Amino acid sequence: MENNNNMVCDLQTGVCGVAEEEKVEIIDFNQPTKAVNLYYVTDPICSHCWALEPVLRRFVEQYGNFFNFHTVMGGLLEKWHDGPIDPANGIHKPADVAPHWREVGEHSRMPIDGTLMIDNPVQSSYPPSRVFKVIQKNHTDAKATEYLRRSREALFAFNQNISDKSVMIEIANHIGLDGKAIVNEAEQQVGLQLLHEDFDLVRRLGVRGFPTIIMTNEENKGVKIVGSRPLDNYVDGLSKVLNLEDLQPKPVPSLSDLLEKEKLLFSKEIEVMYDVEQADVKFLIEQELPTNHYQVNEILGELYFTATK
Q1: Residue 79, Cα to own-chain centre: how many angstroms?
Q2: Among 66-70, 84-88, 121-125, 131-135, whose mean pLDDT is lowest?
Q3: Which are the contacts of 103, defined by CB distance < 8 A and separation ≥ 6?
Q4: What is the CATH number of domain 9-205?
Q5: What is the DSSP letter of 291?
Q6: What is the residue extent of each domain of the chain?
Q7: Whole-number Å distance between alpha carbons of 282 and 272
Q8: DSSP bridge partners of 39
Q9: What is the DSSP letter of 279?
Q10: Which residue, among 278, 255, 265, has the nearest Cα to 306 in the 3D structure?
């Protein structure tokens, strides 16, 4: 897609990239669909996509039975070059990204270190995007989503360069895949082709910033929601697509099931899922989970919980 190097992330719009659209926009498509489809256009190094994870997880958990979920890679950063990337917003070099990321992390409370972009910057978001596409092709959407999640944890919270080959291999190995084989395939023409198929879809969808969520129904009509938004925005958008005023959500999963599935949850993610205050998270954990089923740690002033079984 065009302007792949727009790295600025705006707190008011919740967008990494161009933020000129309304936050909820009614749109029309001329390609027929057989069911409700949700397209989540994103990128591994999109900080506002990381900030959206608590809300997006709850939305999918409670309303995912209404739609087919499709993750689409958008291509946020092809490469750095000698000229300015986004001079209007002060982005001339990788180090300029660090304060933007830290601001997003502080605002969203999804922790972002950001110093990596000074010391060992990600040179392109294309390599981890290509790995995602290869996993999606050879395995399952769920496994690809797991890879994307582990990559974002590594990048934003734990300050690892997820465009580095050894890091990509390690993350893939960690989720039970043959990391070396997958990364090698992603570096071949097939990886590039799969990624550009997503870019073509992004252009057809008219997406210019991340995250963007587009939902379409069987009548080729839908909504486009740009930026990291509250849960109600996505529920309202889905209601419009389905032409239903009162959607019945599924119950949220138990905390034990959620942690077993996700392996790692930050405090903000638990707060959003279970409608609890930050001060009450540890109490909820202690009430819901046996002490030998989790570990509690802290990073950048935020608690996070990992499953031990």
Answers
A1: 20
A2: 84-88
A3: 9, 11
A4: 3.40.30.10
A5: G
A6: 9-205, 255-307
A7: 14
A8: 70, 214
A9: G
A10: 265
Cis-peptide into 128, omega within 30 deg: no
Query: pLDDT digit string (tens) for 214-262?
Result: 999 988 889 999 999 999 999 999 999 999 988 999 999 999 999 999 9
pLDDT digits (tens, 9 = 90+) for 42-87: 999 999 999 999 999 999 999 999 999 999 999 999 998 766 566 6
Other C-beta atoms lying within 10 Å of the C-beta of residue 307: 17
The residue with tokens 């502080």 is 106
pTM: 0.89
Taking the C-alpha atoms of residue 34 and residue 217, their distance in angstroms, rounded to an integer, is 8
Residues 6+ apart with CB under 8 A from 98: 114, 115, 116, 117, 118
DSSP notation for 150-199: HHHIIIIIT---TTSHHHHHHHHHHTTS-HHHHHHHHTSHHHHHHHHHHH
Residue entry with tokens 């073509």: 200
Going by C-alpha positions, the residue among 48, 106, 11, 54 that lies closest to residue 275 is 54
The dihedral sign for the CA sequence 181, 187, 192, 195: positive
User: What's the angle, vertex CA 49, arms to CA 230 and CA 171, rounded to 5?
Assistant: 140
Tokens linked to 152:
């974002």
Which two structure tokens, joined as six digits, stand for 7?
């790295």
Between 1.20.1250, 1.10.10, 1.25.10, 1.20.1300, what CATH number should domain 255-307 receive?
1.10.10
Contact present, 265 and 259 (Cβ < 8 Å): yes
What residue type is 72 in one-letter code? V
